[in-house]
Amino acid sequence: MTKLFKGITELANGVNMPQLGLGVYKMTDPGQTVEAISYAIENGYRAIDTAAIYENERETGEAVRHSGVPRKDLFITSKVWNTDQGYDETLRAFEASLNKLGLDYLDLYLTHWPITGKYVDTYKAIERLYDEKLIRTTGVSNHHTHHLEKILVKANIAPMVNQIELHPYLTQEPLRAFCNEHGIAVTSWSPLARGKLLAEPTLLAIGEQYGKTPAQVIIRWHLQNNLIVIPKSVTPERIRENSEVADFELSNEEMESIDALNRDERTGTNPDTF
Predict the structure, then answer these.
(1) Residue 199 CB neighbour total at 10 angstroms
(2) 66 is in an annotated binding site
(3) pTM for the structure as a whole
(4) Considering 43, 55, 70, 85, which has the largest number of Cβ atoms within 10 A of its Cβ?
(5) How far apart are CA 146 and CA 150, in angstroms?
(6) For this UniProt entry, which segments traverse the membrane (predicted)?
(7) Domain ranges of the chain
(8) 3-state DSSP: the chain helix, strand, coil percent, rounded to 5?
């Protein structure tokens, strides 16, 4: 039986976050969502990444509660949507998310996008939730260096996580270096570039050597770069395949050849023009 990946990232406050999780973006069918999350947890996943805008927090909570896995062993992330940003609004949005999830606390709560004039106050509200022990760790999503710099000037606690679009076509090295310098762990969303990378000859050739798919090679690349990665899928085979990456290791040369695929090409929106 193939070994499932169980790596963790220690965040700035000592909390351990699973390095591989399930993203649930675009999971819109309630039954299918509960099934996919339940299957993932049953097969060793311990981190689930949702958001208010995904409209599946209720289903996420249901799958978590019925999983049979103790709540303390799971790592649940959600995010405040753009229309709910600002200090008081964020506190209200968090309460609504927590109610939908049916949980007592979240492991991580993120600002979804840096809304001009609001994202600093939004993060101040996230700090308050942390102080009140309603969340175990603080973070942001889609923040460039200049956004983080503005937050760091005002923050009592630096964000512990920045979730950004990141894959071999968009390696984001300067932003990763800044985060690393400030003790901010990086989570990769769209880690497979929405499937655009799956026919890439470099990845196919590397995969052939290890008997692995291009998707598994990409996920392994993220993990060996000390990134947290949240591939999304509702297909049981894919969910399982994405986690079967513990039994091989990419060489330095292979890592460099994947780094060299960078084109600074996004599949999603640039946070500066959102």
Answers:
(1) 9
(2) no
(3) 0.97
(4) 85
(5) 6
(6) none
(7) 8-192+225-244
(8) 45, 15, 40
